[in-house]
Automatic annotation (TrEMBL):
The keyword DNA-binding applies. It holds the Pfam family ScfRs. It comes from the Bacteria. This is XRE family transcriptional regulator.
Amino acid sequence: MAGKTLYLGPRLKKLRRELGLTQSNMAADLDISASYIALMERNQRPVTAEMLLKLATTYRIDVADLADKDADETSARLHSALRDPLFSDIAIEPLDIEDIATSYPGMAEALLRLHTAFGEEQLALASRREEGPVRADIAVADPVAEARAFLAARRNCFPSLDDSAAEASRRLTSFDSMKDHMAEVYGLELCLADDGLLLGSVRWYDYHRRRVHISERLDSTGRRFQAALQIAIMGHGPAIDKLIAEGRFADEDGARLARRALQSYWAAALLMPYRAFRKAAAELRYDVEALAARFSVSFEQAAHRLTTLQRPGEEGVPFFFLRVDRAGNVSKRLDGAGFPLARHGGGCPLWNIHEVFATPGNVDAQLIDLPDGQRYVSIARTVRAGGGGFGARSVLRSVALACSAEHLDALVYAQALKGAEPTPIGVACRLCHRPRCIARSAPPIGRELTPSRFRDSGVPFDFSQD
């Protein structure tokens, strides 16, 4: 150990402040000069092994307490952020990134926050361009778009929530254990209730009677999720609010939707702990049905969770997720991969997200090809919400989980898609310039329609390809 040196400036300063000491106080305790303390805190002098031992014995601390437990994660986040094409012309050595994360954690966090804010603005700009010009004197808040941008800018991954949920999952392994936890920690009775009491709701916190009612019409996966969601709301509000404070919302509605998304995120992370779920996903080759069965969750919950596996240094296959109804309305977008199709797509009828309505409950795998040459694997299936009794209303939707085709070999669906011809689709008809598309509902912007006086091409809109 003799002769080994470390630069621990920020951590030494943090320790000193936690102990309530000035540099002069610490210098006197360690029998060194105050100027030497200042130099060590500025990383201009190393903290030697002998100095570490003196710190440990003087202040009765474990040397491990001086280790930065977050340095590895900060380093991984920095590596991920600096892969952005924005920095492609800057040569940054991996060791430099490690040094910044270890020696200048404050600067590292500042850079990461700026990069996240930049990502949010890029997404907002893309959405505004997609929607067309708006009057500069009218500010229209779109809380749904704001919440989606908040999640997408962070790649729908929140390690702090994953960590706290994973810790809780060790003891909250069943609905009954969650029921006991609610009683012991919050003094709340968790119970099932009929529709007559809930009036169509799936969960109701009866504040005055100190009860949380969950609809008996939910299946076991729905009941567990609602119980986990109530625990997230009751016990993890401050952690979630801290994340929300980092967002940029025009009004409370956007923040409210983002907060609801993070509460659901924590609940899903409790049922499907990050590391266990990521390991199982690799073992099962991302078979969504098999994952749902192993973790006792629904197909949609498992598909949703797969979009969150982007923790720096522990990434899974990057997926995006869409949910649509029969009319083509997109009710959920989750993007853990940063793909344009996830932000603006969903309307092409040739995509299997629409075709699976013809075979409810069956999983379909499809290779899709965008006009710009990007190719994806799409796994789609219908899911049903509501119901649970005769006459109870329900809605059938379709979900699609998609990733870049470069990950095909990692997926169980590869065996069905090897050698298959990709289906050409577009993001939207107005933006798709594929000629002779029989499914087209509108001509592309900027293309002149060809006259049909002498010939009928057989397609809805025949346009010049020049």
